[in-house]
Amino acid sequence: MKTKQILIVFLMTVLVPLPCVLPAESENLTGLVKKGELLMAQGAYSAAIAVLENVLKQDPENVQALNQLLESYNRYSQHLIEQKRFDQVPTYIEKLEQTIQKLDAIPLPEFTTAELAIRSRVRREMATAKSFLLDAKHVRTEDLVALNTGREYYNEAVKHFRNHDYKLAEETLLESVKYDQTNPYAYELLGRIASLRQNLEAAEHFYRKAFALNPDPRLRESFERIVQEKNIDQTQQQYADEHFIIRYRRKEEWEGAQIRAYLRDAYRTISQAFGSYPKSKIPVILYDREEFQSLNADVPHWLVAMFDGKIRLPVYAQNASEVDVKRLVHHELAHAFILNLSKMKCPIWLNEGIAQYFEDQVRPIPMHTLERAVQQNKLIEADDLLFKEFYNLPSHEQVSLYYLQSFSITKELIGRYQLFRLKKLLIEIGNDVPFQDAFEKVYGQIFRDYWADWYKTVKASHS
Predict the structure, then answer these.
(1) Whether the Cβ atoms of residue 29 and residue 64 lie closer than 8 Å to each other
(2) Which residue in 241, 266, 267 sits closest to 256, CA to CA?
(3) pLDDT band of 327, cuts 50, 70, 90
(4) pLDDT for residue 8 is more than 80
(5) Which of the 8 DSSP states describes residue 43?
(6) How far apart, in whole angstroms, are the C-alpha atoms of residue 427 and residue 452?
(7) Greater confidence, 364 or 396?
(8) How far is it, in rounded angstroms, from Cα 317 to Cα 319?
(9) Within this chain, do residues 23 and 119 fall inside the same structural domain, yes or no?
(10) Which of 314, 341, 368 is the last residue of a domain?
(11) Which residues contact 219 (CB under 8 A, 6 or more apart)?
(12) Could you give the count of Cα atoms lying within 13 Å of 340 in the half-sphere of its Cβ?
């Protein structure tokens, strides 16, 4: 037995060498980052941390090293809590916070969706660890087990939510809060799911609990918005449908049955085009302009409708024609299908381009702004389209050009390769493949080459 123990120790020494004997001078930084990742996977957290900190001394902005170090600090702090070595935990929580600050200062295009998700998870776990340390002297082993179990359930629920399986996400979250009643993010997500089901009473309850645990201004804003939405909802009626939760006011120009007919027509068109169907009912809320603007005070005044998990249509007292309403319904419903296929990860320009593609089938979209930009050599550059938030564009004309250019690029893409390829692209993006890699995989060419071809085509058409 003693011999076996010695053998195990020897093997561990071979597999997990201490950083002080690593021949760092003979390895490049990429190799060291991979070594740090391997050490972390083997549970040698302090060794992994030493290796990765060494990389950052040589290259302070190494994104891969920062991401691996973030995970290493997080796992090691959890490990220290499990061993009740509470006096050492604050050091690593402080290092976690410093690393997150460094990562937050780096532009988002540097990161994959998976890396951003890890950062979000680490923030949650760090907050839980902090609250746990407040009363560390009284922590019992069973409390630690419950904390970890609750955290595991929560992380699983987030995956279900991103896959739009709201029922399973809700069930898993309710299990999570049985074990850990201190996690505000679990209650926040329960509130989000309740809101998406238009159960605003439950949403208010869960957001209130989340805010009580974490008085963050963002949570306060979400809570106040739910309260405001609930007040509007009390003036509305519900129209039953197998695909939608339709909330409307009686004795208005647009009633439930009429909107339902438009929605079902759009649903049939888009579902047949994609061969795909959203997993959950989609809330559709009809407003007047004042209600819409009060609920969405932070969105631009020129926004005529929106999809944020719910289709929000400010059609009352707008003198909207039948074609206008059908056009809005097709556009906003397309966003729901895109969200379902891409798991909320579709680039904004492509999201808007696809939505306009279906809107255009109701009424052709005027292209005058695009034509003028082509003639004046003022088209938006590829990098700006890929990485800039269109809300931050300097003028309404620039926003209009952003939309039209996105539409033109997307329409040309569908015209060349059909919608089934676009569906594959959305699925790849949903599987955490970066957009440009996914594009090359699906279309067999890099996006910039396609962009150059599109640019030549549009110049020839509108010059």
Answers:
(1) no
(2) 241
(3) very high
(4) no
(5) T
(6) 25
(7) 364
(8) 6
(9) yes
(10) 341
(11) 184, 188, 207, 210, 211
(12) 19
User: Domain range for residue 123?
Assistant: 19-139
SS3 of 282, please? strand
323: tokens are 């074609």
Which residue is listed with tokens 């990389």? 55
* Helix (H) or strand (E) run with residue 312 in it: strand 311-316
Per-residue HEC secondary structure of 25-36 comes to: HHCCHHHHHHHH
Q: Supply the DSSP string of 328-341, one letter for each residue.
A: HHHHHHHHHHHHHH
Strand partners, 286: 313
Let me know whether 399 and 409 are in one domain.
yes
Residue 29 shares a structural domain with residue 95: yes
Give yes or no for a contact between 64 and 56, defined as CB atoms under 8 angstroms apart: no
Q: Same domain for 184 and 76?
A: no
Q: Regarding predicted confidence, which is higher, 414 or 250?
A: 414
Instruction: Report the alpha-carbon angle 411-337-329, nearest 5.
Output: 80
**CB contact at 8 A, 405 and 372:** no
Asked if the model's pLDDT at residue 273 lies above 90, the reply is: yes
Tokens 């904004």, residue located: 348
Query: Average pLDDT of the chain?
Result: 82
Tell me the C-alpha distance between 459 and 376, whole Å.
11
Looking at per-residue confidence, does 204 or 396 come out higher?
Answer: 204
Query: Are 350 and 460 within one domain?
Result: yes
Alpha-carbon distances of 230 from 65, 185, 198, 260, 325, rounded to whole Å: 46, 22, 9, 22, 24
Structure token pair of residue 123: 């923030």
Tokens at 72, concatenated:
């290493």
Tokens of 449: 């080459």
Torsions phi, psi for 283 (to 5 deg): -70, 140
Beta-carbon contacts of residue 221 (< 8 Å; ≥ 6 apart):
none
Partners of 238 in the β-ladder: 247
**What domain count does the chain have?**
4
Structure tokens at 11: 């093997």
Q: How far apart are CA 295 and CA 310, in angstroms?
A: 13
Domain boundary among 294, 318, 341: 341
Q: Is 263 exposed, middle or buried (0-12, 13-18, 19+ CB in 10 A)?
A: buried
Residue 344: Cβ-neighbour burial (10 angstroms; 0-12, 13-18, 19+): middle
The CA distance from 200 to 229, in Å, is 8
Could you tell me the CATH number of the domain that includes residue 320? 3.40.30.160
Asked if 359 and 463 sit in the same domain, the reply is yes
What CA–CA distance (Å, rounded) separates 267 from 262? Answer: 9
Q: What is the DSSP string of 246-315?
A: EEE-TTSSS-HHHHHHHHHHHHHHHHHHHT---SS-EEEEEEEHHHHHHHTTTS-TT---EESSSEEEEE
